């Protein structure tokens, strides 16, 4: 690994740790996303709102219910973000030699490359995390992780860890959209020469919100593919990605594709704002910051 790659990885890791306290909102988002509003073949209760979800989770599972998969999430997010930014920064640097420094083509190519490659490598981590978050039982910590991994493997073999990969690759455009909007917004804010210390914070939050709205239906479909009843049932609720989309539209309407989006925004926007704020500052500390004439 190049020295700069290591520094980008350290910056990404440091920023990831700083945003992990928002994990409970990710659990609520995943559970709301997975429920089709019907009374059968759902792993989790129906939550009417975020506050209702908080009350039900605490009542049924206690405080530990909000921490399910938190260490696995930290691991998955750490690996995913380190891979993304190492792939992204190195590919962008390579493309800059062809298209010129700061070229939009470099950003686009690097973001697509990093998103797709990172998603393929980390898909088993996300499948496992989704299953951990959908577990409403009393198991927590390592016991929950061990049980979940064994269950996925026993039900569907190693391919079970790649459930929803096709949709995940489509949904990986989330990272591409986010980083392009982030770079554009950061450039715009830098030119304004106001609130310079908060530029990365504002750009990070805005870019995440834009990316969530753009790709949320795909992540909803992905969540329903991964959920337990689809993997283990001999008569699964859904037969394909198209079948999921069709049934959501038919039984739940357009709103069905956006279940849990409020929790996703409440978790995603501040976490990415904080993440990019620390990421850019760690880059400066580690001497891989942006040149002053970058924008």
Automatic annotation (TrEMBL):
Key words, A-Z: Membrane, Repeat, Transmembrane, Transmembrane helix, Transport
Organism per entry: Paramecium sonneborni
Membrane-spanning parts: none
GO biological process, one term: nucleotide transport
Ranges: Solcar repeats: 3-94, 105-188, 195-285
Coiled coil: none
GO terms under cellular component: membrane
Protein name per Swiss-Prot or TrEMBL: Mitochondrial carrier protein
